[in-house]
Sequence to fold (503 residues):
Amino acid sequence: MPDDDALSTSQPLLEMRSITKRFPGVLALSEVNFDVRPGEVHVLVGENGAGKSTLMKILAGVYTRDSGEVLFRGKLVDFTTPRQAQDAGIVTIYQELNQVAQLSVTENIFLGSEIERGITLNWSEMHDQARQLLLKLHLEIDPRTQLGTLGVAQQQMVEVAKALHHQASLIIMDEPTSSLSIREIRDLFAIVRELRDHGVSVVYISHHLEETFELADRTTVLRDGRLISTQPASELNVDKLIRLMVGRDLSEKFPKEELPRGDEVLRVEGLSQGNRLQDISFSAYAGEVLGIAGLVGAGRTELVRAIFGADPIDSGKIYVNGRLARIRSPRDAVHHGIGLLTEDRKQQGLCLQMSVRENITMSVLQRLTRGLTTSLGKETALAQRFIDNMAIKASSQDQLAINLSGGTQQKVVLSKWLATEPKALVFDEPTRGIDVGAKVEIYRMINELARQGVAILMVSSELPEILGMSDRILVMGGGRVRGFLTRAEATEQTIMELATARN
Fold:
């Protein structure tokens, strides 16, 4: 890692000066200054809605700024399209990869910049160059391979290869580890360090604060659209970073409340589904948070989708409040009082092109409808109750869900399920892609639900979250239950021992 003194004397590769951006009813950025030096990893952090993505989209030519100026390589630039930024050497790798899964690796790398030979494309040259780019990233992949057949980590590396093809001197990585395993994260970190060592600058956006310290040369914090701090990473720690981000001390990251366990709400007996789930049995109780832990591929998401009726089962029974519940579809699950906050809130939890009000009320429209007409007054009142209770930050009930921050989107999804008055609520990766301040809000909502007697099932890949919020922990491995741990028994070591057991 370059030392701070060496970095401080280098001419900035990028300077963004006094950047201001307004959207209807929202001041997204106010007089923000940001710079990146050659060959550094500059971590950009802040709560959801702090302005991180807006600032980077202005740099990438997706948004136009209202005021301020941008200098790249010492010259004023005004990118109005992503292609202009890319041609200048600035490439963004988004959390939702911008790729064509049906095309080959080569076609994705050269998309829009194909090498021609007369009136045809020079495929042999493109395949050869793609292979060389992949080898630089230590990937031995046939460039003719269809991209969609690769894992998420390899698809991400193809995006990096594409950036190298465009001779990027600045790569923006937006939440690059959100869908990666621990080993894949280590591989990505090695690539980022190698890029830095070869003089490529990286802006790295992440909600996983601990991991940023493994990469960062400097860290910039935004809050409410304003620059709070830019400091060498060596002068920061996680607690200090949290205070800068949220403007308050969040010493209690997991505000778990100890509550008496009530009656059994949900019981699963002998649930099986091909090779994915085998003879799963457990109970969940009123006022309890049952954590579900395991490695990637353990069957956690498959289990909760099966309980919710999203995927068919081969055998097994589900009981709600002691009565057999025949669940063959999500509609059946909702009828029996089971809700599911999916791992992918954008694709499966929300209708992004619908309003906040429509998303909140969609699961209970039958209660708001007489004949063929939905009562707008009742719908508005119900939505406003949850907007107020959940502190949903939206310019109005009519704001589209796609324009909300990740944390606010999660609150809208949670409101949708709370409107159904559930008996059991399943959270699948409830804080994925959510900043530290919004995480604490979600945890407090889980506490409140538990106080109301709801049985909570929480799937999480973050062991500190499982340990911090669970009353009991169900550990899975290979589609089976490997064991149960009480809160007193559970440690990262005991969870991993069960998760990796081969019995």
Residues 69 and 234 are 29 Å apart (CA to CA). The two ends are 43 Å apart (CA to CA).
